[in-house]
From TrEMBL, chains A, B:
Residues 2-55 form the HTH lacI-type domain. The gene is lacI. This is LacI family transcriptional regulator. The lineage of its organism: Bacteria, Bacillati, Actinomycetota, Actinomycetes, Kitasatosporales. Keywords: DNA-binding, Repressor, Transcription, Transcription regulation. It comes from Streptomyces sulfonofaciens. GO terms for molecular function: DNA-binding transcription factor activity; transcription cis-regulatory region binding. It comes from the Bacteria.
Amino acid sequence: MVTIHDVARAAGVSPATVSRVFNGGNVTPARAHSVQQAAAALGFAPNRVARSLRKQRSSVIGLVIPDIGNPFFTSLARGVEDAAQRTSLSVVLCNSDEDTDKERRYLEVALGEQMAGVIVAAASRDRTDLGPLIERGIPVVAVDRRPHEADVDAVMVDNHHGGEVATRHLLKSGYRRIACITGPEGASTSEERLAGYRAALRTAGHRPESADARAHVRHADFRVEGGRLAMRELLAMPEPPDAVFVANNLMTIGVLEALREAGQEPPDLGVLSFGDIPWASLVRPSLTTVELPSYELGRTAAELLLQRMSGGSSALQTVVLRTTLHARESTAGPRG
Amino acid sequence: MVTIHDVARAAGVSPATVSRVFNGGNVTPARAHSVQQAAAALGFAPNRVARSLRKQRSSVIGLVIPDIGNPFFTSLARGVEDAAQRTSLSVVLCNSDEDTDKERRYLEVALGEQMAGVIVAAASRDRTDLGPLIERGIPVVAVDRRPHEADVDAVMVDNHHGGEVATRHLLKSGYRRIACITGPEGASTSEERLAGYRAALRTAGHRPESADARAHVRHADFRVEGGRLAMRELLAMPEPPDAVFVANNLMTIGVLEALREAGQEPPDLGVLSFGDIPWASLVRPSLTTVELPSYELGRTAAELLLQRMSGGSSALQTVVLRTTLHARESTAGPRG
DNA sequence: CACCCTGCTGAAATCCTTTTCACGACGGGT
DNA sequence: ACCCGTCGTGAAAAGGATTTCAGCAGGGTG
């Protein structure tokens, strides 16, 4: 391997000078030039590991997401990358697969590799431990999901508002027995969307706390299969719902499949998805969605991280982004 | 930061012994135990950067993919992760976005960070330079796309065979003017699939080299938009095709959208997709696809990499995996 | 002319771990 | 009883960069 010493020898200067040339220290132009030449001739590439060891900080930022198969997170990742693009930092993705063990390992890697910063969409609210990173002074930004009592900057979606708008839309379309399939209990996103749903029902004079209404709420796992099973259960009820608010995109796929199985079709049974389904344009009837600002979420998180890295020890920030309702055919109203 | 020295002092041994405890050297059980205790008490976590510097090798493997938004690659990534899971290595993803500059930067990171190994689906055949990695002795495995004259292990799809089977299927279904929308010129996957398509036509007595037949071949960019544009062009021809073989999943989305725009629908105009569309189950008529072994591709690549890392300086291997045709409604045959 | 300040440079320390080397102790074979 | 091999251990070197510190030269000021 060609090191800074080799370059120094070739250019007739000290290693310190070579380092200064590459890191913007004070060096005579002539000398700098000969160092550049020597480096090019030898094909010198700085050893990032040695640099990280000395600087106590590497030049990659880690993005930990819970499901690489979910287009929401890949879009978010794009946002992060595009923002980081303009700096000298590289983004590496870590897929925790909603598994807190895998996530813990990745957070250990981030810590051990002394990453410049970490953006994390937590796999769990209480078992995601950002403490060690924070103690080590590594900037951390939480995105989409807020981990329990961690003092970090955060970029969130206004889930409550989104859930409320969605449910209000279903009510306005004439649906009366509106079910909700939300995510795992304990996940902030699940709970907030559910709370929004209940708030809208309450405002409309329903009583979402009644046993009857509670039976229309299902907790699933944010995956296709979970959505399918939950919908099957709802359809098997003595008085099945006439519409369903599905709290994430993948579960909506499962819901639509379950409906097709059962010979039901929107908008007779209204379906509203919280979060886009990629290429939903091909599905007929077209799907009403609450669109999430996934890309902006990522971009904003990265900007917050960069800002925090460049030193401002200002107060912690939480940015909340709004959703947008796209009304389409799947919620046109019950028969007639 | 608590270092190996702190642990050593606390346990009353030398740093070397602490290192041996964590790396499986010869240490008296009693001593080992007291080191473990001290480490736990102090919350010691080894500094991976220092370790990498000394060992000249880190413990992460890099996976460079050209499009994180393409489910084919995310599924491949899962395969890699699952295989790596059983080792102490962590996988980090790098999204090159089909951009050779971004890709080059990521390869530099892999080199500079002294990654334990790299799996790469090359963004370009000729401008993807794996040389420096190989020279440094970092094991590299090419997956899905073979970079030009690089001496690396590889895991590929039998694209030629897949293209041939696909086209033969269209012919058997009664289509006669079969177009092909393939990827960028120069990409191995594009060319091989196209060659398979042509081989099938030739066998059936067509003359794919004729000007007429050549006009039915379009090169696009493997993205939704490219597929849409190519299909629009094909539909605008004086004698438009009665079926189309689309060489990747995302372009098929665009093709279906273009058809819908033009008021056409499969199977009157047959559509066959090379590669799955996630949740295609929701699309009617259901889509005939050539299914790619994406997950297995990733898993096999990781296994090859691990094998290479564990020292066997055996001959280079290229593993080729076959595709599977799933005939569905979209190629049921032209009207009637 | 004396002094100080600035700008450039190189030697050496530093970051933290792994690994080599040397050494002492101990057990077994002759 | 002697020697050899093995095992466990610690001191110290190595890995490659950054950064501090001190020194030196040159220009500007009083």
